Amino acid sequence: MPTALTDDLSRTRTLFEHWRATRSGLREKIPEELWQAVVALRDRYPVSQLCRELHVSAGALRARLRQVKAQPVAPAEFVPLSWEALGLPVADRSVTPADAPIRLLWERADGTRLQLLLPVSLWARAESLCQAFLHS
Fold first, then answer.
1. What are phi and psi of 34, to 5 degrees?
2. DSSP state of 123
3. Which of 9, 25, 57, 103 is least enclosed by beta carbons within 10 angstroms?
4. How many CB atoms lie within 10 A of CB 54?
5. Packing angle of the helix pair 32-40, 58-70 (nearest 10 deg)
6. Residue ranges of domains in the chain
7. Is pTM beyond 0.85 here?
């Protein structure tokens, strides 16, 4: 299994371990933020693995996943960014898709997406921007 895929599950497992160590009682419900973190992993891991790694009930997780499916999905909001906001040179405004062999589409667990279309020469700037996006 690639390292990038195990990192997100490992971080979520750490959050659960911290919550369990600091909760006020054994019957305390799992916080909504933790459920959201588990639901965000549903497309990358089978339910059985999530339950095993996070020590959550399969029935509770399946019920939570059914709730999420039943909720209407709001359309993603498009946020245009200027070249200057991306820290790219103003001279590159004329870049056309034919001049831009790199097309990147990053999606965070919360569904937020970042799409870049840029020439190879600007890869270093795109890499740092993507890192900031993924870790924000």
1. -70, -40
2. H
3. 25
4. 20
5. 80
6. 3-70, 90-134
7. no
